[in-house]
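thread: overnight batch results

M.L. [08:02]
morning all. the overnight job finished for the chain we discussed friday. pasting input first so we're all looking at the same thing
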Amino acid sequence: MAIKFFIDNWRWQGVPFYVRTGKRLLQSSSIITIQFRDVPHVVFPPAASDNWQQNRLIISIQPEMSIRLQLQMKKPGLDMILNTVDMF
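M.L. [08:03]
and the structure it wrote out:
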């Protein structure tokens, strides 16, 4: 079962919150994922941002506690290739 809800105030206007739950899921876990909005301007050239993903803050509570930040970064070298990088 999943539910999508919104908080009705100026700070969280238009931000969806998702809650998924179930008794017969493959694993028992509690994870909070915050997906950041894109900035209004593009820093990288259009050819480099073909596989662009939004930055995320992932907070895992159960079964293993951790905090991770997923960012788009340029791969080292002369070519403009972007990768998703996890920072723990």
